[in-house]
């Protein structure tokens, strides 16, 4: 059975098995026996439909969690994400024990379905309840579980615990899924409010009975899950000072947000130098906090402030609910277009000539680009696993538009390092930034990091916190130190190119390069379309089999060194792993290693660990006007000079071969880099710059349509069920 068929069948099965609370109560209570509740990204007791249905059964309840990260392939959870998961499971286990459970049954396996079936058989369970997930891998896995256990006579039911509305419930007037966020969210707001959140099973009301937890027989052992090794414990200890995982702590965080930050959210949410956001995303990702509870409580605050005439508070609630809607839309998009995790939704963007270069990627992730706001954001991400949402937009836009690196690289790095790493939300964000969505940001728009700096960090406090080498620089120059007079730099102890790098690329050069890349993309797309229309060949169309660009070696090194999973004796089971890239640096050690040589970067030594401070960066290369070099043996590196010759006529076979060809190897991409230039940009006011219309500093608006209005052919969405799936 093909992957696409499996996903489609799993969708149909979810539609058929969707049950109301009343029907689930009667179905679950028909007979006794044992019910296994399969916890995943729903690590809470409150408003947990699967647990609530199990509590209504006449039999015993066995809570279980299966840890099978190998199934995620390249998206093995990062260090900080695994730390949060471990703490959340401990909190959940303690909560279940207070209800009378002996323990949360945990299993370590390379195959979650096999482990779950083995558990069901070993305790002679009669029911399996779990809550929905909507990514392609989970859809296929859930279908497999239902198919196998139903064949054995086990009652299997799944519920909605992650969304306000199921994806199949939100459709347009023609019964089709929405392809843009604004009409999707408008439709959601017009629908009846989602059901009120369920209370935890406490036995304190007539609705809830005390949950019956069976005394597990000895034949049902529990694996000890190990989420960190000795190299990660020191870094993880720092996380506990800032975060408190667990569903009860999530309630406290929500209450603190509602009673504090929410009032001024519309005004302060753009400030990167303060705690101006909700900080709820990790709790929402791991299911410690019910999205329905958040929605209803924010709605209540909005109604109260509206009655009081508090327009600022009312606006803040509307903006925050919109962020909840974006989270909702990310799962909606993934459910209806599973390919969105790997491929652009707009078909023409598969022709975009991304720059495959590991040196650029390493400089970006280490915070050594020479643009203070970008570097500060990447240092914070590396050290804490957290990033303000405005800064996420800045660093991802710089990654895609200025460096023109493949957006999947950035998404993968976010997955490896973010505390709230969420594939669906991250894919939506990166596709939006790269212009891959019908309502995404214009592809030809570059955000000026300098202007963004004075917008989101007007006093430079955020930059000074994470770039101590710039701490003594006056606010006037903090976001563009290359323009500061030499006397100011000397007084601040800054030597550009030594203790702080020069900008990796000039914005004007990046804009020219981007315009050329767009021109090349449209010519490649036109060549493919002409080939199909002329019948010369099948063309690429919606069934393009262009393989995704491989992740760089440094990202692959951050993945697990997979050893055989221990399945005997049920002892600690964790594949050996060591991620030096994610160790939290100390300021002392950082300053002591300022002399790191860039030559090591270009060498890409496989044993190289991440330097902890910016090293001396020299990207100056003499450039010949109109010169075109080849990066990595296939990706054209576009120079600063004017018109490029030799591109007015295309050899169709060579053109399509380049599109179908496999991305150049990472070693070639690193070693053959030439002429990317490190010219220091001279800042001028927007009105004085000829390209100022491209360097916009306006807030990201997902409803922007200017680019698509100019290129109507880019409305074409790729048909996911005709694409090869990589799960």
UniProtKB/TrEMBL annotation:
GO terms for cellular component: cytoplasm; nucleus. Its cofactor is FAD; (6R)-5,10-methylene-5,6,7,8-tetrahydrofolate. Residues 16-26 have a biased composition (Polar residues). InterPro entries: Cryptochr/Photolyase_FAD-bd, Cryptochrome/DNA_photolyase_1, Cryptochrome_C, Cryptochrome_pln, DNA_photolyase_1_CS_C, DNA_photolyase_N. It comes from the Eukaryota. GO terms for molecular function: blue light photoreceptor activity; deoxyribodipyrimidine photo-lyase activity; DNA binding; FAD binding. Keywords: Chromophore, FAD, Flavoprotein. The keyword Flavoprotein applies. PANTHER family: CRYPTOCHROME, OS02G0573200 PROTEIN. This is Photolyase/cryptochrome alpha/beta domain-containing protein.
